[in-house]
Amino acid sequence: MEALEEVLELLKLPHRGSATALEAEAFRRLAGFLEARGLKPLEIPFRGVRSYGPELLALSLLLGLGFLSPLFPLAGALGFYLYFTGRRPWGRLLDRHPSRNLLAWKGEGEGTRALVLMAHVDTAKTYFLYHPKRVKGFRRSFLLNACLALLSPLLALTPLKWPLSLYFLLQAALLLHRELSAPYVEGGNDNASGVAVATALFLETDPPPGFRLGLALTGCEEVGALGAKALLPHLPEGTLVLNLDNVGRGELFYAEGEGMLRYVPYRGPLLEAARKTPGARPVRYRLAYFDTLPLAQRGLPTLTLVRLEGGVPPDWHWPTDTFARLDPKALKDTLAYARSLLKALVDKGQGDLLH
């Protein structure tokens, strides 16, 4: 059985919800898989949350209390901005559940640079906004919500505070219902597909000359890219990071940057190589965030590969995101493209791509 299929089989659990026991089981299986191949993955423990719902619920309540005082929506608007630009200053209070990353290396030597293949292991809870009939409007819904949230301190000084408060209190009620009743999705595409491709590529690839090659499998991506943040101290300065996310169906794209509120452009050799490697189209990804967001914000040269249908990942955060709906050809084509991308880096290793 090929590595792609083996990894997918390992991840066939009811779900791999962020910081849950089943996420931990998935990591246990992946660690055993790598150890059986003579690798010694480092486990990087950290603490996270099991859902983003409670944080957004709290922000919605603050925004919904504008009829009492403008100070509540002022706090809510600030929290909204911080959360959706990748910052969670309240994280130390909320991050109580154990999660982890796995980081494996090939190649040693002083003075070598690092190239890391990354994919997140965890899965998310569903929500009514991800329904196939609504999901194409997800970006519009978010922008409307963002405008209302950021304007709420001013609107709280006008008669519009009453309908606006009702809007955000209703939103809080919907988020509460999600927390109490919504299931985690199985996550065949998001993101067993990325884990399988990244792992297969890592196993088959020798480190490029002058490089160490790494495999980073992260937890808690779905709740604020917490695994990527915990990974940062373990990456050498200037590490190149190729992230794979939702690559099991649809048309292949490489993201040129990302950001829901503030756009963060990618930079570096991987992006330049992608622009010269046929087989994927560029996209400015504004729909959500990837694990690359905190890395790119800190200046690391990153790139994300993603497959989209109609501008969104297929079956995104919906119960139809199952292993049965994966497209084997899409997985193999993604692996082939990523392989070509790394070859482009090696072929130009003496030129300006690696410097």
> First CA to last CA: what distance?
38 Å
* Helix and strand sequence: HHEHHHEEHHHEHEEEHEHEH
Radius of gyration: 20 Å
- Mean pLDDT across residues: 95
Bin the helical content: 40-55%
Strand content: 15-25%
Catalogue the unreliable spans.
Answer: 350-355
Give the number of helices: 12
Main β-sheet description:
9 strands, mixed
Q: What is the number of E strands?
A: 9
Short account of what is shown:
With 355 residues, the chain is α/β, with parallel strands linked by helices. The protein has helices at 3-10, 21-35, 53-64, 71-83, 91-94, 138-155, 161-181, 188-204, 226-231, 269-275, 292-297, 328-347, and strands at residues 42-48, 97-106, 113-120, 211-218, 240-244, 251-258, 264-265, 281-285, 302-308. Mean pLDDT is 95; it is low at 350-355.
What are its keywords?
355 residues, single chain, alpha/beta, nine-stranded mixed β-sheet, disordered C terminus
Structural description of this entry:
There is one protein chain. The protein is α/β, with parallel strands linked by helices. It contains twelve helices and nine strands. The longest helix has 21 residues, at 161-181. Strands 1, 2, 3, 4, 5, 6, 7, 8 and 9 form a nine-stranded mixed sheet that branches. It is globular, with a radius of gyration of 20 Å.
